[in-house]
Design goal:
The chain is mainly α. It is built from 9 helices and 2 strands. The chain has one domain. Helix content is 70%, strand content 3%. It has a two-stranded antiparallel ribbon with strand order 1-2. GO terms for molecular function: UDP-N-acetylglucosamine transmembrane transporter activity; UDP-xylose transmembrane transporter activity.
């Protein structure tokens, strides 16, 4: 709650950590050539970077974190829809039923969130409609990111069918190639780095090292997400 716009620094840290680890152990310090032509990775990276940034920015558009997490769980719905449209796939009745139930849950959560935004007593009559419009824009951003993520999955599936599955290689390039794009977000990342450094000190258990508590949280997030 204290740092609602910190998604960019979290994402950058995750990308940097995975890129460094992959450069050492997967790319062998740049000596190993990729099995999949790198131009395909640039396409995948453009999708991946867009999804990450849009998901982070949605938190600045009046989207509550619980709704953000539940909405992103709808990736199965988007994957199935695009699989039917693009790959002409067909699924069993049980899978359609499961997706319908998940969709109902996401719809219910979204509806409750909309009612909460509309009835927020802390907003004036002038600010209320504006807050609701920002919320609608946030829902649109989450929907776009959901569909883009599903399209990226289909693109990755077709690459694996053509060149073979190279998941570790894809993980490395999907995180290393977008790093220059974070220069566009440098002011926001730097701002939150300063704010993190000003957070209360925290002594790391076991080693006695003292860090600002937000840097400790960020470190734990990066390690556990990998």
């Amino acid at each position: 709650r204290e740092f609602p716009g910190c998604g960019n620094i979290v994402t950058f840290s995750q990308f940097l950590f995975i890129a460094v680890e992959g450069f050492i152990f997967e790319a062998d310090f740049g000596r190993k050539r990729p099995a999949i032509p790198i131009r395909n990775y640039f396409i995948m990276v453009a999708m991946f970077f867009t999804v990450s940034v849009v998901n982070n920015y949605a938190l600045n558009l009046n989207i509550a974190m619980p709704l953000h997490m539940i909405f992103r769980s709808g990736s199965l719905i988007a994957s199935m829809a695009l699989g039917i449209i693009i790959l002409k796939k067909r699924y069993s009745v049980s899978k359609y039923t499961s997706i319908a139930l998940v969709s109902l849950g996401i719809f219910t959560c979204t509806l409750m969130s909309a009612k909460q935004v509309a009835s927020d007593s802390s907003l004036s009559q002038e600010d209320g409609p504006q807050a609701f419009l920002w919320w609608l824009l946030g829902i649109a951003a989450l929907t776009f990111a959901l569909l883009m993520s599903a399209r990226m999955g289909i693109f990755q599936e077709t690459l694996y069918q053509k060149f073979g599955k190279h998941s570790k290689e894809a993980l490395f390039y999907n995180h290393a190639l977008p790093l220059p794009g974070f220069l566009l977000l440098a002011p926001n990342i730097f701002q939150h780095a300063v704010l993190f450094s000003q957070s209360e000190p925290f002594q790391v258990p076991g080693i006695g090292l003292t860090l600002p508590i937000m840097w400790f949280y960020l470190l734990m997030n990066v390690i556990t997400q990998y």
